[in-house]
Write a structure and sequence with these properties.
Elements (H helix, E strand, L loop, with lengths): L2 H15 L2 E12 L4 E11 L3 H5 L11 E14 L2 E12 L1
Antiparallel strand pairs: 1-2, 2-4, 3-4
Length: 94
């Protein structure tokens, strides 16, 4: 994925959840019969409320020139006031 699109996805997540720490992301090309884009595996730490994290699959994350075709919350583990989160995102070039 282009660097601006990756940054747009992280920025959209930050706008929704607040500051993200220890972000680790891996991307690869992805396509289906109707979409062309990237698949992102992203792990991060945040202090957002659990209800916001749990709602991630249904949230509209605005990204100029792209849209989130699918978002899966793979895991979310609370430790004190922090959450260790892993998501998978399919990004479509709009």
């Amino acid at each position: 994925m282009s660097r601006p699109a990756h940054r747009a996805l992280i920025d959209a997540l930050t706008d929704y959840l607040g500051a993200l720490d220890d972000v680790v992301a891996k991307t690869r090309d992805w396509a289906s019969a109707t979409f062309i884009g990237m698949q992102h595996d992203i792990a991060f730490v945040c202090s957002a409320e659990a209800t916001l994290i749990d709602a991630l699959p249904d949230v509209d994350l605005p990204m100029a020139g792209h849209f989130v075709a699918d978002l899966v919350l793979v895991s979310s583990e609370a430790q004190g006031s922090y959450h260790y989160v892993v998501i998978e995102v399919l990004d479509n070039f709009g």
